[in-house]
Structures are given as structure tokens and as C-alpha cells.
Amino acid sequence: MANIDIDAPGTSQLLIGNEAIARGALEAGIGFAAAYPGTPSSEILGSLAQAAKEMGIYAEWSVNEKVAMEAAAGASFAGIRALASMKQNGINVVSDFLANLVMSGIGKGGLVLISCDDPSAISSSNEQDTRPIAKWLDIPLVEPGDFQEAKDMTKWLFDLAEELGTLCMLRSVTRIAHARGNVKLGELPKKQLKAYFDQIHDLKSVMPTTFMPIPSPLRHFFLHMKMDKAREKFEGSAFNRYVGPNKADLLIITCGSCWLYSQDAVKALKLEDRVGILKLGTLWPLPEKFIGEHLDKSEKLLFVEEIDPFLERSVMEMVANLPPSSPRPIFYGKRSGHVNAYGELNPDLVIKAISTILGLAYQPRDIEYRKKAEAFAKSNVPERTMTFCAGCPHRATFWAIKNALKLDGRGGVVTGDIGCYSMALGPTGFFQVRTMHCMGAGAGVANGLGKLGQFGFDQPVLAVVGDSTFYHATIPALINGVYNQSDFILVILDNSATAMTGFQPHPGTGMTAMGEPTKVVSMEALCCSLGTHVEVCDPFDLKGTIATLLEMMAEGGGAKVAIMRRQCELVRAKKEKPPYRVHVDPEKCIGEACGCDRLCTRVFLCPGLIWDKKANRSKIDEVTCTGCGLCVDVCPQGAIIKEAV
Q: Rounded to whole angstroms, how far apart are CA atoms 216 and 604?
């Protein structure tokens, strides 16, 4: 990650959007930052944590997003500017606290919430737009259209939050969060921060901890006043602007990364003198006067935004309330089908929408060239599927689960949730996982399945969960299972890292976000304290792991825990050499005549195992192989050999 604490005001640095957001927070003078890792948001806290000691701030990976937001609010109550960052799923986790926080107000320290949405669900269990949540809860909302705005907006939001006395929110998306651009730096503050919880401070914050007879309806009234003030600030914001002719054939209203796509599309079509673009950076409350000043520029409006028709609906509501003499444009967007109401957008999709509305013919590339390119790709680009890394302990765990369920013979069900192991829905996990929702949901669903015995249900239930997810959202479900005597096995995949999002530490790793050693919260001790049966397995011990799972399935009698403990191979490889050198004995390998038709390369699917078409034998890819030696136990012919290094 970039050095975001460089003291070089006026210089331009190449930053990803998340680093720009973190830099903006530093320039704003924050003292406290908290988050739970979630792509595409993780680098915000990661960058701040790297700079924390040098800048004299505090940064933490919290156990979940709700706690992160609550901790940041605590800092704000004591007068320290604070930030909480998360992906769109985290907004769901924190929504209960948000609904209360907006009514109470914040402390004298500005408080900012960053949500990084993931259009197309590139690294998420769902596709979700968090903008309607800001509208629902009355949270001032902005969205950067480029990397410079990502920094500048973040810095500005802290001033706005303190002026309004309320939480403010910045929404980003994957293509801003993880793309790079030049960012001109501002000055870093030099003042020392001093925290103090003033228990008798003024009424504007409406702190619920003070004994003030302020009923909830009045707090709601105060919140509406804050939103009215926010709208006034937004009307003159430099983050909103118009480019294009005074009178246009089409007016595009857009925000975020779609501002860049819209510019590219108009330039590609050479329509700068026919199409105007109204770019909004302040999304809620809507700057109605600013928008109204531009509505008469065209009779046709095209809304270009990801994911939901948020601006489209909001502007339509605004127009419906205008006087009868006001412009009544034709609306194009997601409702009309000109823009997808799902997935990411790109310049080509915007070009298609503009061309359709204006009746233009546009061919992005020569048809013959396109056909040749597609044919070349089909014949020369190898097919790649999502898979666990070579040496990943999760592959061993799901191999053991697959075999244990087969041996048990009762059609056991595996429930799961989001994480590296969610790929077990597909071939890399041998199609073992049957459900995948939010973090911790696998254990929650297992609670229900495990109480169906009275209806004749006798299938074993295994809920798989990662170690970080266990601390984040699974403990209540386990407690519920123990308390209500639900019959399921919680299988914790303990690879000692929040691997999916960048190996961030968690309560089980003994390290904080700022690199300081801390007490390990033992998951087995915690589980044992609930009075449940706990087993710890090394998933690379396939025979032992299969035997343990079979015994626990046969045991019945309520919720149990099986901890599969083996360090993530990518973490281990940074500290240690490969334990074995692995190779295939071509004399013993019988190729496609083996067991399940190439069991090792077609079914087991470790990237370190490849098929040699010429020799008609399997072999080891020495570049990819991590030397874990697990495949030795998988080969039924004993053709794979491991030798200690």
C-alpha cells in the first residue's frame, strides 16, 4: 500500500481510491478509525493502521462492523474525529445502531461512515446498493466521482458532520476503491488531540446519555432540521457540476464512477455539443435547486448510476412536486430498460443507451475483427475456474467432509456463508456447501435444520465457518444451538487469518491492526465454556479428520464443534520453506484408468497437480506446488511421492 502519511502538500501521488479516502481522513485530523475487513473496503483501515503510530492515531480491526461503528461513535462522543469503514454487507450489520445514532446525534468530534459497494458482487455474497439506507435513515450522503474527490470529500465530510452534529456517509464502489489515479495532497494537521467526554455539553448533539427530557419525536424533528441544513450546504457544493451545451438533445444525470463512464461515452460518440452531463457528488439530501436549474436543458433525461435507480427515483419525486409550469422531461434509465438495474456499468453500456435514445448507429469495432478475436480467445485462452490455492487447508477439510458424509450414508447437509470456503459451492470444494448467505448464516440455518427431528429429519448437519467469521457473527448462533439443543456440528475452518480480504488479524491471531501483540481469544476455550463437545483436527490428517467427523455425526445430542486448524498456505509460505518435495512416479500412475477417471487432476483439483497430455499421466507443477504433500494421501495408486526437504 502507498505511504499515505507522506508530508508533501501540493504534490501528486498515485493512489487507489481507498488510499485516497484514508489520506482524506488523515488530512481531516482523525484520531480514531475502526473497521471489519471486507472487499472492496479493506485498504482504508489497512492504510490508516500502517500510518497510525507515526500519525499518533488509533486504528483497529473490530470484531464486526457494528462494534466498529459503535467504537468510532464512542471516540466522537469524547471529541475525537472518527471513521468507520466497511463493505455494503457491513451496513446491514450496523443498521440497528445507525437507526439510533442518527436520532441521538454525535459528539463534538466529526463521525464519518464509509461504505464501499460491490456492483456485480465481484467479491461478495450479494449485490446491494447502500444509498437507499442513507435516505431511509436520514444520513447526509456523498459519492466521489474520481480519486481526487475521494480524498477531498472525506476531508470535507468531517467538517460537515461537526457542523450538523450528525453522522455523515460516503459511498464508494469497487472501480473507485481499487482503481488508481493521481491525487493532489493537502496538509497534514500537526495539533495534538485531547479526548474528553463532556457530560453537560450543549443540546445540539442531543446525546442520549445525558438526562435530558427530549422525547423521540422531538429528536426526529431535530434530525430533519439537520437534513435541511445539509441540503443548503449541498446546493452550493463544488462536488456537483454540469458540463455540456446550454441546450442539449439529451441530459445525463449521473454520479460516482458512472461520471467517468458517461464522459467516455459522450466523447466516443463525439456528442459534446449535443449531450450534457449533470454530475452529482452530494446525493442525499438531493440538491433540488441545483438540479432544477438544469432541468430545462433538455426534454430527455438519462440516469446513469449503479446499482439501484436511486437518483432516478429521487429526481422523479422532485419533479412530481414542482409547479405545473415547470419542465416535465421524459425519463430514461433503469425503469425504461435503457440502463441495467443490476451489475456494473461501463462506457459501452452508456454508449448503447445514448445511441438508442438518440437513434444513432454505433459500431464499437469492426465485426470481422470481433469474430476473429472471439475465435482466438476460445482456442487459445485456457478455461479457468475459481479454486482454492495450492496447499489450501480448506481443500483438505472439504475432502474429509465429502468422504465422511459418504461413509455416514444419511445424505448429510453442509451449510455455509461468505468467505474463501464459499467456493465449496463449486468443484473446488467438491460441491459440498448447499447454502450461502451472510456471515454466520450457515450456523443460523443449521440451528433450524438441527431441530427437525420430530418431523423425521435424520440427515447430519454440518455448518462450515471461517475463523474470522466465527468471532464476527457465529458465536450467538452457537450459543443458540447449545441452549436449544439443536443437533448440528459447527466446523470452524481455522486458517489463522482473514484470508479472503487480505490476511488481516482477528481475535484468534494474537496481533492487532497496528502490529502489536495481544491476547489470543481461544475459540476452543470459548466453545468449551458453553459446555459443548469440541474437537481440534489437522485437516491434512485426512484419516483422523474423517474418523472424528463420523464419530461426531453418530453421537448426536446437540450442537458440537470441530475446529479444523491448519495455517493458510499463503501465510505459512512467507515464513517457512515447503515441507516436502512432491513428484509423480510415472510407472505407478495409471492416468485415466485410475479410480474416478483421473481422481487427482479432475476431482481433487489442486492447482499443483496438472495433466500431461503427451505422457497421459499426472504430474506436479513445480512452480505452483507448495509441497504440502496432501495429494499423497489422495492418490489411490500411491503414485504421488513426497520427500522431506
A: 59
| CATH of region 580-644, choose from 3.40.50.720, 3.40.366.10, 3.30.70.20, 3.10.20.600 | 3.30.70.20
| Strand 168-173 to 141-142 pairing | parallel
In this predicted structure, what is the pLDDT of residue 288? 94
pLDDT of residue 200: 63
Helices (H), 381-498: 393-408, 441-449, 467-469, 475-483
pLDDT tens track for 239-289 = 999 999 999 999 999 999 999 999 999 999 999 999 999 999 999 999 999
Q: What is the pTM of this model?
A: 0.88
Which CATH superfamily hosts domain 393-572?
A: Thiamin diphosphate (ThDP)-binding fold, Pyr/PP domains (3.40.50.970)
Q: How far apart are CA 59 and CA 51, in angstroms?
A: 9
Q: Is 233 exposed, middle or buried (0-12, 13-18, 19+ CB in 10 A)?
A: middle
pLDDT at 206: 46
Identity of the amino acid at 399: W
Contact between 555 and 533 (Cβ < 8 Å)? yes
Please give the helix or strand (H or E) that residue 548 lies within, else none.
helix 542-555
User: Has residue 638 got a pLDDT over 80?
Assistant: yes
Rounded mean pLDDT of 443-457? 90
Architecture of domain 241-358: 3-Layer(aba) Sandwich (3.40)
Report how far apart, in Å, the C-alpha atoms of 325 and of each of 55, 250, 286, 296, 314 are: 56, 21, 21, 11, 20
